[in-house]
């Protein structure tokens, strides 16, 4: 069972410039495609193997799972994995996010509504305020929460005992977590970009659920251009479907997929307009760097979070850029890709 706590906007549509209706459509799309078991969760093999042992051991000891921290760029399956873990542990999942817990009272009401063995998922946990975070420590460690009742000189501290619960935190910025919070998680998981093999399996699975007629080469084309990110492949699959419906009686062939993706501004290695603008500015305007992130953000007039969480991690992983002590530098691959070499 899943309960959404507070009016935390579901993150499935985040990092997109969609209208509210389109965003709602995206949320429904991603929820319908979300794996709900270890079996249906594709890729991240080593991590999944470890998590299977972790869940089995907790079940054997009849204990709640230890607290888990999931780190990795957006859209790689952190929320999905929280759902899977709760499902596999047969626990009720409560979901919220760091910014939604905007004061201690919200945290108190969240924690006191939990039952023994429940899972509390906090997305963007690096965005908790310092006060809320400090109050989370005793809850995580000793399953207690300290409240002050009354005002001024009559205020008195009351300690509430909490049921043993599991906190699953997700973050795109593990480096922004404070040491004390990081250390209170018993299991640290890094989620990586998916390789081509796994992306193909993800696109195939999603196409099957959406009952789409798609050729293998169409699958490969979408998988290859999805930045190793399931959220992107699901979104692209949906867009490509529109083109196939209009131009090809619903059949997604390689040609239709390639045409649709070209029209959406996604190039043959999966870079989108923002990625290419980043590389062009770095390579041409700044002669390949080094350039500090502040300067890049200003030159692109983009949100810093998008640059640091979405754009750069993929460009770094793919070897387009490198990070040095003096800033970002463009590597040969960038010059070749932009036709500057
Ligand atoms: P995050 O929380 O890391 O931003 P999500 O868990 O919301 O990412 O994943 C986005 C979408 O991608 C999900 O709705 C799901 O359909 C799909 N997805 C994520 N991980 C996987 C996976 N391992 N296998 C298949 N689909 C996945």
| Major sheet size, sense and barrel closure | 6 strands, parallel
Overall pLDDT metric: 92
- Measured as a percent range, the helix fraction is 40-55%
Q: Helical region count?
A: 14
What is bound: which ligands?
adenosine-5'-diphosphate
**What structural class is derived from the secondary structure elements?**
alpha/beta
- Cα distance spanning the termini: 55 Å
Within the largest sheet, what's the order of strands? 1-3-4-7-2-8
Beta content: 5-15%
Shape: globular
Please mark out the parts with pLDDT under 50 across 5 or more consecutive residues, or reply none: 7-16
Radius of gyration: 22 Å
How many strands?
Answer: 12
**SSE order, one letter for each helix or strand:** EHHEHEHEHEEEHEHEHHEHHHHEEH
Itemize the secondary structure elements and their pairings.
Layout: E1 2-4, H1 20-33, H2 45-60, E2 68-71, H3 78-88, E3 93-97, H4 104-112, E4 119-123, H5 130-142, E5 144-149, E6 156-161, E7 166-171, H6 179-183, E8 187-190, H7 196-209, E9 213-214, H8 216-224, H9 230-247, E10 251-252, H10 254-263, H11 273-285, H12 293-300, H13 304-317, E11 321-324, E12 327-330, H14 332-337
Parallel strand pairs: 1-3, 2-7, 2-8, 3-4, 4-7, 9-10
Antiparallel strand pairs: 5-6, 11-12
Helix pairs in contact: 7-8, 7-9, 8-10, 9-10
